[in-house]
Design brief:
heterodimer, A: alpha/beta, four-stranded antiparallel β-sheet, B: 339 residues, alpha+beta, 12 helices, binds adenosine-5'-triphosphate, binds magnesium ion
């Protein structure tokens, strides 16, 4: 069915949330958050997913890792159909596919020290690892994302947004994933910091051979990191092209609208 | 976090005084057998409703005056001029006692009750029941409240609707009736000297529901936060998420709620015991002691010392309430009621 060069293939994915009304909570309607989306992510490449707020980007990303309920459609990961797997059979993919979250102020538990935050996925997927090996791994990961060993015993509130996003990346990298869903990882950051994080993700991709689904709402960030770009609105993908083509030769009105919102340098 | 809260409690003059008062009360309860001059059930029927004995300084010693009963029908006592008994300290495992061979002589710092038992002694022993009931009770309440509330909020679905309808049901019945009904239902299974447990079970059953509801609400909002999604995404189990991610983020609420609901236990015990449905004689508890003060005789003849347990209940409840209010202001400044 699927092309072995693609790490991820999504076909006709739909996520509909029921709308319940009245005291009896009867289902009267549905929100079509994702409404028939088809795309693929080639191994080792970055696919950008762009669209305005509410267009269904986050829901698409979450459906891949079963954080959003799939109404219909298929998801192939490395040629395996993972869209219909139960909780247990899906468990190995919770190691292979990681997610980076939009809001760095919300994605780290405020009551946990950095060492515990980064070691949490190790506790789950590397049960046999000794505590001292885990600690070494945490320190190694912190250095890898550009943070200092001395940060291990601090709490998230002691860090800036950019540093927290680095911690989130270290946590995602801890279990040696192959594929990462990056859900607007830089939207909440200052422009100067955005570039640093995007470059970090690029360097990590080169070093570790990762594949990304990179979600953003502005084309400037997407163009910088993506090989291919998907433009999404109202739960549907309206345009799909390489990063240059999108910039040079936008086909869809909606894409042009997005482009005009990008500040000209 | 916990340490910071504690330091701020110590810095605030009001909460510091509450903490000191409560610490003293709990210390008195712990060391009751040492601090009290008699065992709690030692009677002296010739000295019923004895007023507090005056302590004087004579011959370089602290001494107590000796009283005679001038009107047994009205329990009227008068000090005998010039007759005193010296107090000795650290005798027979007690902090103080009377230095006399006469086993009818008594030191009553806060008078005696209807069977001549020392009110001071019984206050100290009663504190053990009245003060521990709150601590044991809230640990049950908060555990139940957290488990039910967090599971409802996190799992949602059938479990949630069933539990929350049940909580609504509990909250809809007036507390006192529910308490009396529960007490009647449980009491036959316990001997009368184990009423302590009956009271705790009945009160815990009533009070867990409101905290469960609040915890459920907090869990609903926390489970939407991205660090919980991150944990789910990495394959963390349900219970690990409840205890690693949700519990630490509701713990400050639990602390405030616990402090504010200790008074419910103290008052609940007092109410049951006052009605004769709680702690049974010859044991002591503040509510039980207070029930002696409801007789007409006590009221007419002004035996004020029998009201001291009420005063202690009042002090304890106020101290816990103020402490809870200050804690809430520290934990959640948005809820602050006064400037
Ligand atoms: N759990 C849910 N229940 C009901 N509706 C939902 C749920 N999650 C998302 N939606 C709806 O689905 C639509 C798409 O939401 P989604 O979060 O995927 O958008 P987005 O493109 O990520 O937007 P943003 O840029 O603001 O993050 C929105 O209309 C949203 O209201
Ligand atoms: Mg989003």
């Amino acid at each position: 069915m699927s092309n072995p060069e693609n790490i991820l293939e999504v076909k006709d994915l739909k996520v509909h949330y029921p709308v319940k009304t009245g005291i009896l909570q009867r289902v009267t309607d549905s929100v079509k958050a994702v409404d028939g989306v088809t795309f693929e992510v080639p191994r080792g490449k970055t696919v950008g997913l762009v669209g305005e707020s509410g267009s269904g980007k986050t829901t698409t990303g979450r459906a891949i890792v079963k954080l959003a309920p799939i109404t219909s459609g298929t998801i192939w990961y490395n040629g395996e159909d993972i869209g219909n797997l139960g909780k247990k059979p899906f468990f190995p993919y919770r190691k292979k596919i990681q997610m980076i979250f939009q809001d760095p102020f919300n994605s780290l538990n405020p009551r946990m020290r950095i060492s515990r935050i980064i070691a949490e996925p190790l506790d789950i997927h590397f049960k046999d690892m000794s505590p001292s090996d885990k600690m070494d791994r945490v320190v190694e990961l912190l250095k890898k994302v550009g943070l200092d060993e001395s940060h291990v015993n601090r709490y998230p509130h002691e860090f800036s947004g950019g540093q927290r996003q680095r911690i989130g990346i270290a946590r995602a990298l801890a279990v040696e994933p192959e594929f990462m869903v990056c859900d607007e990882p830089v939207s909440a950051l200052d422009v100067s910091v955005q570039a640093q994080i995007v470059n970090l993700l690029k360097d990590l991709q080169d070093e570790l051979g990762l594949s990304y689904l990179f979600i953003a709402h502005d084309l400037a960030v997407i163009e910088h990191i993506s090989d291919d770009v998907l433009v999404m609105t109202n739960g549907k993908i309206v345009e799909q092209a390489s990063a240059e083509d999108i910039y040079e030769n936008p086909q869809h009105d909606y894409t042009r609208k997005l482009l005009s919102a990008v500040p000209k340098l | 976090m916990t340490r910071q809260i504690f330091i701020r409690l110590l810095r605030n003059r009001i909460s510091l005084s509450c903490l000191i008062i409560l610490a003293l009360l709990y210390l008195c309860a712990i060391f009751a057998p040492f601090l009290s001059p008699y065992p709690p059930s030692t009677q002296n029927l010739k000295k019923a409703f004895h007023p507090p004995t005056a302590v004087v300084f004579k011959d370089w010693k602290l001494q107590v005056k000796v009283y005679e009963n001038i009107d047994p029908s009205a329990a009227q006592y008068q000090a005998i001029e010039g007759e005193t008994i010296p107090i000795k300290f650290f005798t027979g495992g007690k902090l103080f006692g009377l230095d006399t061979e006469d086993d009818q002589a008594r030191i009553y710092l806060l008078g005696s009750d209807s069977t001549g038992r020392d009110v001071f002694t019984r206050l100290l022993h009663g504190a053990r029941v009245s003060l521990t009931i709150g601590l044991v009770g809230i640990s049950i309440t908060m555990t139940l409240g957290f488990v039910v509330g967090a599971l409802s909020g996190y799992l949602g679905g059938k479990f949630d609707s069933v539990m929350m309808r049940y909580v609504d049901f509990l909250l809809a019945i007036p507390t006192l009736y529910l308490l009396l009904a529960l007490r009647a239902a449980i009491a036959p299974y316990f001997p009368s000297d184990k009423m302590f447990y009956v009271i705790i079970i009945a009160l815990a059953f009533i009070t867990w529901s409101s905290s469960a509801r609040v915890i459920r609400g907090m869990t609903l909002s926390i489970r939407q936060r991205q660090f919980v999604l991150a944990a789910e995404n990495m394959g963390q189990g349900k219970f690990a998420i409840l205890f690693k991610h949700i519990l630490p983020n509701v713990s400050s609420y639990l602390l405030v709620a616990a402090t504010l609901s200790i008074p419910n236990y103290i008052l609940g015990e007092a109410a049951l015991s006052f009605l004769g449905l709680g702690i049974q004689e010859p044991e002591a508890s503040w509510g039980l002691m207070l029930s002696q003060a409801k007789s007409m005789k006590v009221f007419m003849l002004n035996f004020w010392w029998l009201l001291t347990p009420g005063f202690l209940i009042f002090i304890t409840v106020i101290a816990f309430n103020i402490l809870g209010d200050v804690l809430r202001d520290i934990v959640d400044p948005k809820m602050k009621t006064t400037s």
